Structures are given as structure tokens and as C-alpha cells.
Amino acid sequence: MKLSKKITAIxxxxxxxxxxxxxxxxxxxxxxxxVHSLQLxxxxxxxxxxxxLAKKEYHAVTTKLTAEKKLREQSIEKMLSAISTLDDxxxxxxxxxxxxxxxxxxxxxxxxxxxKEIENQLLLSIDETRRASDAKSQFLSIMSHEIRSPxxxxxxxxxxxxxxxxxxDQEENIDVLNIASNNLMLxxxxxxxxxxxxxGKLELDNSPFDFHKLINNLKxxxxxxxxxxxxxxxxxxxxxxxxxxxxxSVRIGQxxxxxxxxxxxxxxxxxxxxxVSEIVGNHKESTIRISVQDTGIGISKxxxxxxFEKFTQAESHITREFGGTGLGLTISRDLLGIMDSKLQIxxxxxxxxxxxxxITLQKGNVQExxxxxxxxxxxLSNARILIVDDLEYNLMILQKIVKDWxxxxxxxxxxxxxxxxIEANNYDxxxxxxxxxxxxxxxxxxxxxxxxxxVPIIALTASTDISLKIELMAIGMNDYLTKPFxxxxxxxxxxxxxxxxxxxx
Length: 505
Hints:
Layout: H1 5-14, H2 24-86, H3 101-163, H4 171-199, E1 207-210, H5 211-228, E2 232-237, E3 244-247, H6 249-265, E4 271-281, E5 285-294, H7 316-322, H8 328-338, E6 344-348, E7 352-363, H9 366-369, E8 384-388, H10 392-401, E9 408-412, H11 415-424, E10 429-433, H12 441-448, E11 457-461, H13 467-475, E12 479-482, H14 487-504
Parallel strand pairs: 2-4, 8-9, 8-10, 10-11, 11-12
Antiparallel strand pairs: 1-3, 3-7, 4-5, 5-7, 6-7
Helix pairs in contact: 2-3, 3-4, 3-10, 4-8, 5-6, 6-8, 11-12
């Protein structure tokens, strides 16, 4: 065996005087030493390698553990931050240790359970509030019906008295009766509408309507009240305004009625200008600005926000002097909000005010509103009409109202009588009250439609719920008329319904 260089060098250094290279026994000994030395060297190298690997593994493990510890600390910090946000009750505060993760977790669980209890209490409270709101709405609906029915008689009688011969000194009394009854009706409508808006139950219609007719009718309706205060009511409408749009014409008219009435109320010996202009338009839709400018008392900047608050007017003395509930502008603002619009004001105290809003409406076809062909068009002369109502004074009022229209009238006091009479006779139209004993108007209509699909049936109701129209159409009614109604409104409703039935026939 060849000696290693290291052993040979050691031997040459220390065995200079010995001939060890030629001594077999010495060589054999040195070979053994060389082998043992090599083994030791290999073991040393192995140990160093193992140590190096262990050191690397230790470093890797240490790095991992450090990172995990940091993440845990961050997690605990976040949980403690959450706790500080949740824990608003000093009685439940604990001295939390960041290193005691179990305690933190237990405390978080306690807070989650506590929050669940609070949430359940809130849900119960919301449910109770909703039930209270529904009860209020139901109460108002019942009261509306109970008030509207006798109010219909009052308005009807005022109209009849105005038509009949009477002493000249009674004219003022009759005018006062008309004004008072109409104001009462507006008040009832305001209260009901506000309740619907507040409870989120007010629904908007989206039907085609004649925009020009709406604006012109509003102008006509307010001309006399403006003249009473020696005001001049002017109308300016752009030629670009289309004839027909889709929307809720009743609610748009309601907003404008409130704004116009407000302008007239606070203006004397002045001008009220109703302006309608198209801001942006294309073949599909128009954005229209409607403004009402007056030369009235004006509103200070401090009070301009106040006037939109419910049951509030700018100043207390204004309420005493001019009256009003303070709901008109609030309802108008809220109605426009539902229509994605906003009622805005520009006013200078002592100079006047301008109320305006921008509304986007889809364009319609005038043919959707007015039939192109009306065959055999006729007035109400000799039309045979059945009036169904259980209240005698309602029947009396209707009889007196239609006296000059030369119609033939039959009467029924409940739905059961009406069904039998319709089956036995040919009627041009039926006026059907909804709430009656024995058989109500809904059930009577369903029974009639089993054998007669053609006779027009108009519901008489005290309800103002727009969803009622959908319900009544579904059971076979053609239209409805809300109490109290204007006699002119009744005439046009009867005329249009009869003429439309002739077209269908």
C-alpha cells in the first residue's frame, strides 16, 4: 500500500536517522497509521458536512418560525384592534395578553355572540316598526275612505247648488263651500301621499300622456285663483316639447299644482310665469326644465332649506297669515326624488321666488293617448247607465249631476242586484261602487264577466292607491274613478269609456 503524502512527510521529518523505507515492519506499521489517518480525515469531513447541513436546516427552520411568529403577532394585533372597535362597554373590557391567543379568541367569540343578540333585537325592533307603519297606513286608508265618501257628497252638492237657481246673496256662500271642500280634499291627499312616501309604498305610473294638455289644463285650473289675488298667470312652452311622453302625469301635475298654488298664495298684484323648455333631447327622450317664477314675498337664504321640512313654513307668522299644512313642498320634493329629479329654488326676499326642476321623460306616440279613429262617436244622450251604490245620498248626488246629460239611469243597491240587472238588460255603462253589502263591486264584476264581456264597468272608489288600477283591470273592470270626483271629470270619463267600447265592438 502506498503511504499518504502526509504520513510520508511526517516520517521523513522525524525518522531521518532510520532506514524505515527498507524496514518491512516499519513500513507495515506506517501503512496502518496511514489507513487510520485517512479514516479519521473522512470522518472529520463527514462531520463537517453534516454540521453544515444542520446549520442550514436550523437557519431555515429558525427563519420560518420567526415569520410564523410575526404573522401570529400581526393576527393578534388585528384581533385586538377589532376588539377595541367592538368593545364599547367598559363593563366587558378585559386585560388581554397578546401572547394568550386562546383568551383573545374566546373574547372575540363572546363579542360575536353579543353582536348577534343586538342584531336580533334590532330585527325585532324593525319588525315592530314595520307593523306599526302598516297599521298607520291601514288606519289612514280607512279614514280616507270614511272621509272621502261624505266629502264626495259635499263637493257634489256644491256643484249642484252652483248650477241650480238660487238667491244672489247665496253665491258667495256656495263659492266658500266649494273652496273649503276642495281644500279639505287636497289636505287629505297630502296626508295620504306623505304617509305612502314615508313608508316607501308610493308607486309611480308610467303611461303615455298628452304633455301639452297637462300643462295647459294646469294653467287653466289656476287662472281663476291667480286672478282672485290680481295676479297674471303666464305660460311659455318651447316648440321642441313633444306632444306625448311616458310617465306619471298625475304626480307631475301634483308637483306643479303645489308649486303653482304656493306661488299664487304668496303673490299679490303680481305675475306668475310657468315656463317649460327642453334642455336636452333626441328622438327617444327629452330632459325638460319646468319652472314657476313669481313676484311674491320671496324667501330669505336662511329659510330656503327650512321650507322643505315637513309641517314647516319659512316663518310662523306666514302660517298664521297664509295658512297651509307645510306638506306641499315636502311632498313635491319627495315625489321628484322618486322620479330622479330635484326641486330647486332661487329666491330673494321681497322680490320673488323661482321653483324649478329638470325631469327626463321617454317620448311616446300621440296615437297611444288619442285613438286615431273613433267610429260612431256620440255624446251621452240616451245612454243607458246602471249606478251601483248602497248609499242613498251617493245615488241622489249622481242622479242630480247627470240630470242635464239626458242619460237613462237605473239603480242597484248591491252587487247581487247589479248582476241580475245586467243579465236582464242592455247597458251602455255601469258605475260600480267597490264597498257594498251582500256582494261587493269586485265579486259582482267577476260574476258579470262570466256572461257579459262587453259592457264597460267603471269602479267608484275612495282609494288613491295606483296599484288598485292593475287589480281592477285584472278582474275585468275598464277604469276607475276616485271619490270625491269633479262632475266634469265624471262626464269625460263616461264619454271616453262609452266611445272606446264602441271602437272595440
